[in-house]
Amino acid sequence: MIEKEFVIKNSLGLHTKPVNEFVKRISKYKSSVKIFKDDEVADGKSILEILILAVSCGEKIKVVVDGEDEEEVMRVIEDLVENKFYTEQV
After folding, report:
1. What are the pLDDT digits (tens) for 33-66?
2. Residue 15 catalytic?
3. Where are the beta strands (DSSP E) in the chain?
4. CA-CA distance, 71 to 77, in Å (whole number)?
5. Pairwise CA distance, residues 28 & 41, whole Å
6. How wide is the angle at C-alpha 62 spanned by C-alphas 57 and 67, nearest 5°?
7. Fewer C-beta neighbours within 10 Å, C or N terminus of the chain?
8. Four-way CATH pick for 2-86: 3.10.129.10, 3.30.365.10, 3.30.590.20, 3.30.1340.10
9. Catalytic residue among 6, 9, 12, 15
């Protein structure tokens, strides 16, 4: 199991477009992904559950990845967060 905290950098936070990109990229992996914001938790492979977290720009989330391909999954997540989910001009 790997866990890491991230600060969401894209201007509109985790809205539909970045969440869709996130779920699309990690759903092909076997590891489970959980996203924590404050006292709430979402399945990282569920668009609706992530959207319900209502994560805004500048807020912190904790991501926990558990499974046989967890290191690769975390690298994908780090890339997405660092590149603003590829939904904004850099």
Report:
1. 999 999 999 999 999 999 999 999 999 999 999 9
2. yes
3. 2-7, 32-37, 40-43, 60-66
4. 10
5. 21
6. 135
7. C
8. 3.30.1340.10
9. 15
